[in-house]
Predict the 3D structure of the following.
Amino acid sequence: MLVTPYRTNLFQDTYELHQFLLAFKQTAVQKKQTQILSISQEIPAVDPLVVLQAIARPDQLHFYFEKPAQGEAIAAIDTAAALKLESPNRFYKSQEFIQSCLANTTSIGELNLPFSGAHFFCAFTFFNKNLESDSPFPSATVFLPRWQIALKNQTAVVVANIPIDSEINVQDLTESLWRTFQAIRVTGLERFHSASFLDIAIDARKLFKKQDVADVNHFKSSVVKALSSIQAEKIHKIVLAHALDVISPIPFQLIPSVNHLRTRHPDCNIFSTSNGKGQSFIGASPERLISIHNHELVTDALAGSAPRGKISSEDGELANRLLTSEKERREHRVVIDFIRDRLSQLGLNPQILSQPQLLKLLNIQHLWTPIQAKVPAGVQPLEILAELHPTPAVAGVPSESAQKEIRRYETFNRSLYAAPLGWVDHRGNSEFVVGIRSALIDGCRARLYAGAGIVAGSDPDKELAEIQLKLQALLKALV
């Protein structure tokens, strides 16, 4: 990737923008290959979710990622380059696609800002290849957005990624870029207003129709069968999911629902990603899969759960039970050992706390152990992702056997549920979360997903209660 120290704001003057694009077009002509120009520009602080609502279209890909408690959010809209594939080597091919795009990208502008420069947004399905024909997403989707709007600590940056070839009409391109940039500046300054949806939401919720995709007794019987496999030592742990379909008399409002998620769950990772066909996958995930910044990796071991108490004394008692539960700590240790072993295979030296901590969320608390490691030169983010997915926190142990059992017991397609979602930037930094506490939004239908880890000592009724607790948090966010 070529970095050019071009400091002038190209979006201040249409003439200068036009002249620069004309000159850049000559580069594409000379190289006889499409080139990508990536322009990073600081703007007054905006709300990326407001911009997403204002300029994104249902037939375009989008990706939204926010950490409310940390004051950062990023919206990716439309595509400058995209890869969709069904392949057993999807992580490798996706990383290869990213490197290929970067080799033909020139970055200019204010590249010292947070979230500046080219970012590639990725969504991988849970299973390596979708055997079910009804999956709304391919095994891998990777795209460089046409527009990227980000906010961190009240610093906002817009990144325009512009593919240019020898046939492009520079005048039309200049006018289109200018219009969109001005629209981003104007709409992004507005505050998010969901009041217009409020009355509709209240009335519609009274008419929601809820239907389990599989009968709850099927889930409990699956837990019983899984416990038999665990007792026979065919597997040591398995994560079984349950899905709930919610039908609304009016279409679900995607952006207000995401706004509701970030308001209700500020300590989670809020996400939304679309397939360009009117379907979007949203959620509030507490589980970070990988975070890489300046070659420093942080990942989470998150397994073992308990509800929150209604009063502080009850909450403390539930937390203490969780911390001292032999069954929950055993489930947690399985995840830690898996992550440590997989990172070690890549030549990393993971640093792990001796005792798990508590991660307290709105209606649930988890055993949580952050794991850190320095990433050696030459190890790519998606290479690490390929080793870690799926962790025992969402699949089981041994992984291959657990995945076969999951296919046997679950009657629905997981698609993006419990799968890696996130981004990789031009410097090799990345953020990926696990797509849990999530829902597929499709017009008037929403499919909600939640899962529970089954180990020796699990109780079918208690595991079902944990899943229903997780589903309730999602249900309350739907607008």
